[in-house]
Amino acid sequence: MNATKTFGLASMLAILGLVSGHAKAVPAGPSFYVSQGGNDSWSGKLAAPNSAHNNGPFLTLEKARDAARTFLATHPGSGSATIYLRGGTYTRSTTFELSGKNGDSGASATAPLTYRAFGKELVRITGSTAVTNWKPVTDVAILDKLEHAARGKVLQADLNGIKELEAAISTGFSRSSANPSAELFFADKPMTLARWPNGGAYATIKSAPKGQNGADFTCDSDRLAKWAAAEDAWLHGYWTFDWADSYVKIGSVDAATHTITTLPPYGVYGYSPGRRFYVLNLLEELDEPGEYYLDRKSHILYFWPPAPIAASSAHISVLSSPLVKITDAQNIRFEGITFEETRGEAITIQNSSDCVIAGCTIRNTGTNGISIVGGSHCGVLSSDLYNLGDSGVYLSGGDRQTLKPGLHFVENCNIHHQSRLDFTYKPAIGIDGVGNRASNNRLHDAPHNAILMGGNDHIVEYNEIYRVCTQTGDAGAVYMGRDLAQRGTVVRYNHFHDIGPTLHAKETDRYTEVMAVYLDDCFCGVTILGNLFERAGRSIMLGGGRDNTIANNVFVDCNPSIHIDQRGKGWASKYFDQDGEWHIYEHLKAVPYNRDAYLKYPHLANILDEDPPAARYNRVLNNIHFGNGKWIDWLDGLSDKMVEVTGNWTSEDPGFVDSANHNYKLKPGAQALNGAFKPLPLDKIGIHKDRYRLEVDKDR
Asked: Is the domain of 255 the same as that of 291?
């Protein structure tokens, strides 16, 4: 690109206390219960009210938390508490906070403080409030703004009792989304803020009269006249690059000249002819079922329900802080709970250890699903995350100065339809720091990245990744970039398939270079081992880095299977330079790259003496390339004389069991097995059944 972008299963089971070991046995602590039919003056030790109705479960999470705190403080070494939540919806107007400094920590990883759904009851923790006071629209002035087809279909509700509606739409690439707007949810699904064009389509910039960095652009559409009087209309677009989207507020519209003037900050990277956008937050465009508009002055919500309004429930998200926040704590678990319908994050875990979210559902958030920052051994296990405004799970742990690992993890999770509001660099899983892991996940259906990484020594393994990068270009399903010292990451035993744009063919010519694994702008020291790449676009891009190994992978119908360039000595030399905007040398010198723990990385200590921009020490070993598409693209003067390329199968069918039906196991005695190639562990890839995930569907 040419502009700035921003351990094994047994070990983990032991950490989670799911297999036997030699840890000292800790007795089970007490159980407390919470119910919407409870009372905080009761003992909380009964799952239901007694017959005299003078004892039973607590009413609030805070009362149960405080009871557990008292027990843990007065009974050291006597185990941990379990808080059972009875079925129902627990509406939060403030964050539920747990802090180790206040005594909210379990006894050990095998005896954690646990918040758990009772039996198979459906427990929801939500940051929304119900909207019930619907009535037909009768105001003539409002009806006049609606399309004829919408009149009589759109309902309205007065939200004057809700104060938390002040946030404006102001998100996108490199911009904060810490205080997103309230959203409408109906039948447990996010509705669409009224927009044009409908159906996920885009309009196109015709020209930028004042240049790329001006406030104006033109668009050939007669609909501009409808927006001229709107006071809170917004635009969302990929204004110049297909990897950078942002929201922009409309300042004025000149229907006669088809000119839209925007307010600062303008579209990220400016406005370029031919680029795509849509208009949103317009009552005038509320013209199909599922769309809504919120008038922030009158606090009136307008909605065209996709089903009879009485057929399901409608909620408006209110809470902008996390639903749950865990800080400086140890050994806490949440199990079997649904966290949903909130403007901010669902769960934040900070500077904590051995805290796990297991068997939960995280959905319908305004920003991220779960963030884990600092600490160690925290993770998300066997959970489903979807319809998220930004990222799914963000992991950041470990010390890049010492290379001490964080050992955070995301395992056996199904994460999809994230990046719902911000379309770029909001991955299913974000990983930073040192020594964190994503394994056995199913990651799919997103406009941009599935996994976005920075740091050292991470493991990405046994994941199934598909239908991602569906709207973007110069994008990678797994992406890393712009650092010479962020090394040691392994991407192994994953199945990448159907990576790339899914819009209509006539709209896809603008999208280029969609990769499955993208080592961008001189990223180094990654091992890509034993993966299956099937219809995975450009598949692997080594964008100018060094010390990367591509070994024992299978490529089917990828074009090309591998791209290798030396951009640091070619078109990107000015970005690589000492004063270049990639800040390559600053990043290198920010860590002890030539001493201490970093000495384990080959060729790093002396990199400044070995022509740093040169793409050296890369290896392509024992891979299988099959089907349509080119084997390797070489750029910037590179060739197989400068890269170790040996033992690769690039001719006819290597002996697949049934390639016509996508069975890429090798038959016994297959020709490809005569070399160093080792069969891929295809049966171990993807999500699987466990104590939390009882069924595994075959979503395709």
From this structure: no
- Does one domain contain both 183 and 249? no
Tell me the pTM.
0.94
Q: What is the pLDDT of residue 170?
A: 61
- φ/ψ region of 435 (left if φ > 0, alpha if ψ in -120 to 50, else beta) reads left
* Residue 196, beta-bridge partner list: 279
Upstream peptide bond of 560 is cis (omega within 30 degrees of 0): yes
Tokens standing for 373? 């920052």
- Report helix, strand or coil for 230: coil
Residue 430, CA distances (Å) to 370, 384, 417, 466 in order: 10, 16, 15, 17
The pLDDT of residue 171 is: 78
Residue 334, both tokens = 């949440």
Last residue of a domain, one of 258, 280, 302: 280
180 and 294 housed in the same domain: yes
| DSSP tag of 506 | G
Beta-carbon count within 10 A of 76 CB? 7
Residues 173 and 230 in one domain: no
Contact 382, 359 (CB under 8 A): yes
CA-based angle 684:688:692, to the nearest 5?
150
- Strands (E) in 255-331, as ranges, are 259-262, 276-280, 291-295, 300-303, 314-317, 324-327
Which residue among 272, 294, 315 closes a domain? 315
Is-contact 359 143, C-beta < 8 A? no
Amino acid at 677: F
In eight-state DSSP terms, residue 585 is: H
- Residue 157, in any domain of the structure: yes
In a domain, 299, yes or no: yes
CA dihedral 683, 684, 690, 693 (to 10 degrees): -80
166 with 215, same domain: the answer is no
Q: Do residues 274 and 146 share a domain?
A: no
Please say whether the beta carbons of 422 and 172 come within 8 A: yes
> Are 174 and 292 part of one and the same domain?
yes
213 exposure class (CB count in 10 Å sphere: 0-12, 13-18, 19+): exposed
Dist CA 450 CA 443 (whole Å): 6
CA distance linking residue 542 with residue 553, whole number of Å: 15
Residue 135's beta-bridge partner residues? 156
**Dihedral sign for Cα atoms in the order 273, 278, 284, 285:** positive
Domain contains 459: no
- 189 phi and psi, to 5 degrees? -130, 145
Provide the β-strand partners of residue 404.
Answer: 399
Q: State the DSSP H helix or E strand holding residue 196, giving kind and residue range, or none if neither.
A: strand 195-196
* Residue 253 belongs to some domain of the structure: yes
Give the strand pairing for 332-335 and 113-117: parallel
493: left (phi over 0), alpha (psi -120 to 50) or beta: left
Q: With the C-alpha atoms ordered 35, 40, 42, 43, is the resulting torsion angle positive or negative? A: positive
Q: Is 442 helix (H, G, I), strand (E, B) or coil?
A: strand
Q: Which residue from 469, 464, 632, 485 is spatially nearest to 533, judged by alpha carbons?
A: 464
Q: Are residues 151 and 273 in the same domain?
A: no
Q: Is 161 exposed, middle or buried (0-12, 13-18, 19+ CB in 10 A)?
A: exposed
Amino acid at 360: C
Question: Which domain covers residue 270, as residue numbers?
Answer: 203-280
How many structural domains does the chain have?
Answer: 2
519 SS3 class = strand
Judging by beta carbons within 10 Å of its beta carbon (0-12, 13-18, 19+), is residue 289 exposed, middle or buried? middle
- The partner residues of 380 in beta bridges, in order of sequence, read 357, 410
The predicted-structure confidence for 441-474, as pLDDT tens digits, reads as follows 999 999 999 999 999 999 999 999 999 999 999 9
What per-residue confidence (pLDDT) applies to 334?
A: 98
For residue 168, what pLDDT is reported? Answer: 60
Low-confidence ranges of the chain (pLDDT < 70): 1-27, 164, 166-170, 175-179, 502-512, 699-700
Contact 277, 237 (CB under 8 A): yes
